[in-house]
Design goal:
This protein is of the alpha+beta class. It is globular. The relative contact order is 0.23.
């Protein structure tokens, strides 16, 4: 018998959700006045995600966000991990909601990265990816480029159609 959730045993896109990880290197520690504009918007942006169509889950601590999660040794790297029903749902939240305003302002708070900072991949519906899983997917994208294992908005892949194709 398979260890996959029952929903993942069903062929078809409804058995899959989209996981996303993105990282950003802050220009200063979170408590620095330089990041005050970013910090002031966190609660609003997270609440916006939580009520957006297609949102499933996001990694968060008891504080309601993931700013205390350290996936890397560098304490200036922020880590964001969430699950959505589709690429379209996530894209709509990122680019077509009030989230786009802080996105446009990100250069004030974050250093541009010279490697991939976002990775997308399909997970069985009901699965909550771990920090380790997410960092592995991002590293895979950085090393191998987009493919079914990890991809980007620019080169997205459809969900697997049968168990074992992820």
């Amino acid at each position: 018998m398979s260890d996959a959730p029952q929903s993942a045993r069903v062929a078809g896109p409804e058995a899959w959700h989209l996981a996303q990880v993105n990282v950003a290197r802050m220009r200063a520690p979170l408590e620095d006045p330089l990041l005050a504009g970013f910090v002031a918007q966190l609660e609003f942006v997270n609440a916006l995600a939580d009520r957006s169509p297609g949102f499933v889950w996001r990694l968060q601590t008891d504080d309601g966000d993931a700013t205390a999660v350290r996936a890397y040794d560098d304490p200036l790297i922020l880590f964001n991990l969430s699950v959505w029903v589709s690429v379209a749902a996530l894209r709509d939240y990122v680019y077509n909601s009030a989230h786009r305003e802080p996105l446009r302002e990100r250069k004030q708070w974050f250093v541009p990265m010279d490697t991939a900072h976002l990775a997308l991949w399909w997970v069985p519906a009901g699965h909550r990816p771990s920090v380790q899983e997410a960092t592995e997917r991002l590293e895979h994208l950085r090393r191998h480029g987009p493919g079914p294992t990890a991809f980007s908005f620019a080169k997205a892949f459809d969900p697997p159609v049968a168990l074992g194709q992820r």
